[in-house]
Amino acid sequence: MRLLIVGSLEGHMITAGKIAFERGAKVATVDDIQQAMSSLRTGQGADLLLVDIDLDIDTLCKNLLAERFSVPVIACGIGTQPSKAGDAIRSGAKEYIPLPPDAELIAAVLAAVTEETTALVFKDPATAAVLRLAEQIAPSDASVLVTGESGTGKEVMSRYLHSKSKRAKNHFISVNCAAIPENLLESELFGHEKGAFTGAISRRIGKFEEANGGTLLLDEISEMHPRLQAKLLRAVQEREIDRVGGTQPIKVDIRLLATSNRNLEEEVKKGNFREDLYYRLNVVNIEMPALRERPMDIEILAEHFIGKYAKSNGIAKPALTPEAKHQLLQHHWRGNVRELENTMHRAVLLSRDNLISPEAIMLTGSATFGPTPTATPSASPAVAPSIPGYPASGKAVASSQPMSGSEAAGGAMVGRTVADVERDLILNTLDHCLGNRTHAANILGISIRTLRNKLKLYSEDGIEITGPGGNDSLSPSL
């Protein structure tokens, strides 16, 4: 990984850099925020910024957002500084690290950033067959198209291909074509000269140049506008690009990977994707099987995610009961590995007595591999199943008869609107997290912005919102 240190802090930041270097990171240093932004614009890139807390972190985070640099910021300061640390995190920093640096803490931060970028956890023969193909073609420079449903691990496979290639020691650069507006994607890919358009305040190196010598991943390439596909085709054919507003072509040496959750042959027939570009990208096709097509991976992945989130939450790893295991194996997993990960994250937080039982597993939908379980009859009125023991009001109550897994799967929701169930799930999850918006958003699998917008609407409707620390608030701190 690439670490950029911003500031000095009496030499303690350099010590942190040495620790990171010994752990395998590539380390660069700059003195201030302006130099940090200049370094990013010129294509030197970074996977993590370690920033002196006395610098203007708020401005840095705003500049990163405005110029579309998706780089996590870690604030550092001498000793514990709760007030400054809180301000830095509110500005957008992911974490605060006290200095002098602790080697294990630095290692943990690096591990969190680079975690599982190439790790593939599997047991099913279907996954093993895909990996054999990947290992066979990884050493070549051939373009690879990785296809499959959303959440199957297409980017993880792409990083695995890079890690097994001749370019493994060079950069792996990923661009999400679906997340960047069409009018900005051209600049993101090919870069621009100063003054090329309104807002182009300085020259910026694009992802093609940043990936020079390494691998460039075009994630969800089917979302790219046909106009831009023509320029991409030339770059793929000639290994040559033109910056927006530039006058000279620039040679690049990259290995190109692309992913799509759509059938590109169908997109070609519909006229949404260029046929010549499709054949240029699809030298080799790796199709990631859906999770339901590799059932032997479900249990091993579930155990992997339980361990991951137990560790991140500082608790002992809970055991998965046989009933809960059966429930996981019966589920359809429309969201694939991503849905399983979110489910196990919730299950770890909702586990009791160091056990994950069916009550802790909140599944979306009721589609299963086998027969759908029948809900146990109950004389009590149906309530939202969100979190066992929590009614629609969002207040915790004692429950001598918690809902069974089958009741939570759907029976208790009959007769309720989707909006009502969603509201109760959001409020109960927030209550469970004692008002921590970030944790609640992670559990729910939504962005923090979406969560804040939902809470604002609920507050305007007069619903009490749990504030930070578990206190009730009519005006949530959004």
Task: Explain what you see.
By secondary structure, this protein is of the alpha/beta class. The protein contains 19 helices and 16 strands. It has helices at 12-22, 33-41, 57-66, 82-91, 103-114, 125-137, 154-163, 182-190, 207-210, 226-238, 264-269, 275-281, 296-312, 322-330, 336-350, 405-409, 418-432, 437-444, 448-460, and strands at 2-6, 26-30, 48-52, 73-78, 95-99, 144-147, 172-176, 215-219, 240-241, 250-251, 255-260, 284-287, 319-320, 355-356, 465-466, 472-473. The strands form 5 sheets. A 5-stranded parallel sheet has the order 2-1-3-4-5. Helix 3 (57-66) links the parallel strand 3 (48-52) and strand 4 (73-78). Helix 10 packs across helix 12 and helix 18 (437-444) crosses helix 19 (448-460). The two termini are 33 Å apart.
Extended strand count: 16
Mean residue pLDDT = 83
Helix content percent band: 40-55%
The number of distinct helices, counting runs of at least 4 residues, comes to 19
Structural class: alpha/beta
Shape: globular
User: What kind of oligomer do you see?
Assistant: single chain
Taking pLDDT < 50 over at least 5 consecutive residues as the criterion, the unreliable ranges are 366-411, 470-478
The whole-angstrom Rg is 24 Å
Biggest pleated-sheet summary: 5 strands, parallel
Strand content: 5-15%
Strand order of the largest sheet: 2-1-3-4-5
User: How far is the first residue's CA from the last residue's CA?
Assistant: 33 Å
